[in-house]
């Protein structure tokens, strides 16, 4: 599978879904956040579900520091929200723990989970939104596979 990052903003649910696949470098992640911030329907207070189950991200701890600074210094990315990182890989858990420890003064609540239902609950989506979220992530994954 090619490396890819795609996202879907669901404004009526105040939610952003991001799908990551392939071997990604840190610049891919940074550029995606900058692109997302420019979207008309984006709001930095929308909760986020990041599906990284199909991705392998290559970066160092200093890259996480850079990412935290990007969030801190860009008002279009800075907002009170919850982020669920959906993964099935131990290295993603380790990196999210590092991110959580470095983002001390940012108003982002971060949780790493292994089940989509848990991610849905974490971002305060209603149980009736589960199908919409699941279908949207499937759509993002299918789109990535067809690139």
Give a description of the structure.
This protein has 147 residues and is an alpha/beta fold. Helix content is 41%, strand content 29%. The protein contains five helices and five strands, in the order E-E-H-E-H-E-H-E-H-H. A five-stranded mixed sheet has the order 1-2-3-4-5, with helices on both faces. Helix 2 (61-73) packs across helix 3. The longest helix is centred in the last third of the chain and has 16 residues, at 130-145. It is globular, with a radius of gyration of 14 Å.
CATH architectural label: 3-Layer(aba) Sandwich
CATH superfamily: SpoIIaa-like domains
Biggest β-sheet: count, sense, barrel? 5 strands, mixed
How many strands? Answer: 5
From the structure above, extract its key features.
147 residues; alpha/beta; 5-stranded mixed sheet; 5 helices; 5 strands; globular
In short:
The protein has 147 residues and is α/β, with parallel strands linked by helices. It has one domain: 3-Layer(aba) Sandwich (Rossmann fold), CATH 3.40.50.10600. The protein has five helices and five strands, in the order ββαβαβαβαα.
Question: Strands, helices and their partners?
Answer:
Elements: E1 4-10, E2 15-25, H1 26-37, E3 47-58, H2 61-73, E4 81-86, H3 90-102, E5 108-113, H4 116-122, H5 130-145
Parallel strand pairs: 2-3, 3-4, 4-5
Antiparallel strand pairs: 1-2
Helix pairs in contact: 2-3
């Amino acid at each position: 599978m090619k490396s890819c990052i795609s996202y879907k903003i669901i404004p009526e649910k105040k939610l952003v879904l991001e799908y990551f696949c392939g071997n990604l470098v840190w610049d891919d992640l940074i550029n995606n956040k900058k692109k997302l911030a420019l979207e008309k329907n984006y709001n930095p207070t929308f909760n986020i579900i990041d599906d990284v189950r199909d991705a392998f991200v290559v970066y160092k701890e200093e890259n996480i520091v850079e990412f935290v600074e990007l969030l801190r210094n860009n008002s279009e990315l800075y907002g009170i929200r919850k982020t669920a990182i959906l993964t099935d890989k131990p290295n993603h858990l380790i990196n999210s723990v590092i991110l959580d420890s470095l983002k001390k003064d940012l108003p982002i609540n971060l949780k790493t989970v292994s089940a989509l239902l848990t991610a849905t609950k974490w971002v305060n989506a209603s149980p009736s939104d589960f199908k919409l979220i699941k279908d949207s992530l499937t759509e993002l994954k299918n789109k990535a596979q067809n690139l």
